[in-house]
């Protein structure tokens, strides 16, 4: 049997379950290895190859999630900071939610990987999480999911109802429009130009009144255009002007790779990956990732010479 055509969608599934791109890659590899070892026991009369692989992947994910804490964003842990000058100390003991690099799989298998939705899904117990993704996203039947989880159709339907209720209670966390349409992209492009110029007033004009800025692995986060602007003013005072950006997407959302000017150098060095939610023509949320593992997953160059950056523009 040929299982490779399913690798991309299994990667997205494992990511939805774990909230970590790197762990998802490992779990997909484990799934493929288990499938290869069990290939002689596969019965096409009982399930399709795809259904069989998802059963293996689900068991792999549930085992990996045993005893694990959920992967949050800073805004899911407490109240916003009111001090834009607070110390930026990373909390490396927290397993932070990671963004998904869109370029790593086909567009048709990464339906709705918005940060807010994946973060809200992390609130569910693992088996409810599996039921929700398998039924609502992947559209397996209740009978197929029951077979994959080794349970009953009634139990699957009950778990799905509880998962829906839990996500409805999350409310604001999933009620966002993050589609990267031309209007959204135009807003992010204006943000990029203001960011490169270190123009804080221009950035603030592109924010909603309650805009959120968060920066895992730093546990601090800010709400409101005022504090957002004060924090960005601090960043530019620390690193100066002359930044560069590159546009990309993460989980279907518009994103920027931000490059800071090298101290006394002749180029730009990779600083952060910023993932945006835009609503009503304004930036409502900016999740800024500085974890080197996240930056590597997106295949971003660590340094860009000034001349190369200018030619690309």
Molecular structure report:
The structure is a single chain. With 313 residues, this protein is α+β, with helices and mostly antiparallel strands. The protein is 45% helix and 18% strand. The protein contains twelve helices and seven strands. Strands 1, 2, 3, 4, 5, 6 and 7 form a seven-stranded mixed sheet that branches. The chain is elongated and about 65 Å long. It starts with 6 loop residues before the first helix and ends with a helix. About 3% of the residues have low confidence.
Helix content: 40-55%
Class by SSE composition: alpha+beta
> What is the straight-line distance between the termini?
47 Å
Number of continuous helical runs: 12
Radius of gyration: 21 Å
What number is the mean pLDDT?
A: 89
The dominant shape is elongated
Largest sheet: 7 strands, mixed
Strand content: 15-25%
What low-confidence regions span 5 or more consecutive residues with pLDDT below 50?
Answer: 172-180
What is the N-to-C order of secondary-structure elements (H for helix, E for strand)?
HHHHHHHHHEEHEEEEHEH
Using DSSP, what is the number of strands?
7
């Amino acid at each position: 049997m040929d299982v490779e055509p399913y690798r991309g969608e299994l990667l997205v599934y494992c990511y939805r379950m774990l909230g970590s791109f790197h762990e998802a890659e490992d779990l997909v590899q484990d799934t493929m290895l288990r499938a290869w070892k069990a290939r002689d026991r596969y019965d096409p009369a009982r399930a399709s190859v795809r259904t069989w692989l998802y059963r293996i992947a689900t068991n792999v994910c549930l085992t990996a999630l045993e005893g694990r804490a959920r992967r949050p964003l800073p805004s899911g842990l407490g109240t916003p900071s009111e001090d834009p000058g607070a110390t930026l100390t990373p909390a490396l003991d927290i397993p932070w939610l990671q963004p998904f690099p869109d370029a790593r799989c086909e567009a048709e298998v990464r339906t709705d990987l918005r940060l807010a939705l994946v973060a809200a899904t992390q609130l569910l117990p693992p088996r409810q999480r599996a039921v929700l993704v398998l039924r609502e996203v992947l559209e397996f039947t209740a009978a197929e999911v029951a077979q994959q989880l080794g349970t009953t159709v009634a139990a699957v339907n009950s778990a799905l109802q509880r998962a829906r209720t839990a996500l409805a209670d999350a409310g604001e966390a999933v009620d966002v429009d993050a589609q990267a349409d031309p209007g959204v992209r135009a807003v992010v492009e204006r943000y990029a130009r203001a960011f490169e110029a270190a123009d804080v007033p221009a950035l603030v004009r592109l924010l909603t009144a309650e805009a959120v800025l968060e920066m895992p692995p730093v546990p601090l986060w800010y709400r409101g255009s005022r504090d957002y602007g004060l924090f960005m003013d601090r960043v530019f005072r620390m690193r100066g002007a002359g930044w560069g950006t590159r546009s990309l997407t993460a989980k279907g959302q518009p994103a920027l790779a931000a490059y800071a000017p090298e101290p006394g150098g002749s180029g730009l060095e990779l600083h952060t990956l910023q993932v945006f939610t835009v609503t009503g023509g304004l930036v409502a949320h900016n999740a800024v990732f500085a974890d080197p593992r996240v930056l590597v997953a997106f295949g971003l160059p660590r340094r860009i010479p000034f001349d190369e950056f200018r030619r690309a523009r």
